Amino acid sequence: MAMPGGWVRKRITVALLALALLFAAAVAVKGRILQFVDGAFLNVVDDCAGTGPLEREIDALPVFGIPPAGTVPAKGSEAPGGSAGCLDDSGDELVEAYRTFRLTDDKWSVADRMRTAAERDGWTLGAVESSEEEPADPADLCFGKRLKHGPVVVRVSFQPAEKQVEVDAHSLLDGTATSC
Q1: Is the N or C terminus of the chain more exposed, i.e. has fewer CB atoms within 10 Å?
Q2: CB atoms inside a 10 Å sphere around CB 106
Q3: Average pLDDT of 53-60?
Q4: What range defines the domain where residue 99 resides?
């Protein structure tokens, strides 16, 4: 007569083998699992690793270093550069920089000078997106250009009530072009 302990031992062995196979399968597809978990829930993968060159390239754009004619840096935005950084918590990982300037001239004159300078530097004028929640000022501008490390979009947003203009540049990390 067989001992009841042998039957239990076999069941435990089968269960352990099943767990080992499940673990091996999970290890084999861990990249996909982490990608799913990262995008859907936790952001455990550092999608911003290695973005330093793109951040420096965006931060070095002339519009961030030299205030556009007819503007001066706004309070809190005095340091040159756009303070570029990587954002990876929205599902659309991107490098972004911005700087705010106070208008010392008519916004239309500033917009014309910025448009001329951007086009001279090879930037392409694009359409400015707006919505009821965030209407665009008629003087707002949008430019696009492929830089060494990826396509970049620059949006120039005039805020007439504050007599300011904000310049924002961003580039999606997946290399796809984006719009304003």
Answers
A1: N
A2: 11
A3: 89
A4: 52-172
